[in-house]
Amino acid sequence: MGFMDLKPTAVLVTVDAALLAPAPPEPDTPMLKLIRLERTLGHKVFILTSLPERFRAVLYAWLRRLGLESDGILMRADGEHCPDAQLKTAMAAAVMKRHHVVHAYNDRADSHIAYTRLGLNATRCALPAHSPVQAHAQTES
């Protein structure tokens, strides 16, 4: 492999289970510090979620509130109902086409299994619990 064949490095961060609990966000958890460190080390950060596309703006606001920067967010298409592990496999594969994924951080067992089946190093961990979907629904009522 020549120098020009090198892909930029990236980490994947799955934020599904964290979106289900109504607790307020905690921006300085060890997990968020680790993701920020990955970025400092020069890795791109991609957020993967089963949240439907229609909640993109809400998710962006939640990530900003946590101080978590990303280089891309991959979301479920509105109306898509495939199993979560299948969705995450496709999302990870899409990122892997253009980046060398050095690690995947995830908050679901099925995502963890999907990532390891792709040959990725994966860590199952929890991001701060807070539901941008619930918060969005409360502001609309």
What is the gist of this entry?
It contains five helices and five strands, in the order βαβαβαβαβα. With 141 residues, it is α/β, with parallel strands linked by helices.
Task: Describe the protein's architecture and organization.
This protein is globular. The chain has helices at residues 30-40, 56-66, 84-96, 109-117, 132-140, and strands at 9-14, 44-52, 72-76, 100-106, 122-124. 30% of the residues are buried. The longest helix is centred in the middle third of the chain and has 13 residues, at 84-96. A 5-stranded parallel sheet has the order 3-2-1-4-5. The chain is α/β, with parallel strands linked by helices and 141 residues long. Helices cover 38% and strands 21% of the residues. The chain starts with 8 loop residues before the first strand and ends with a helix.
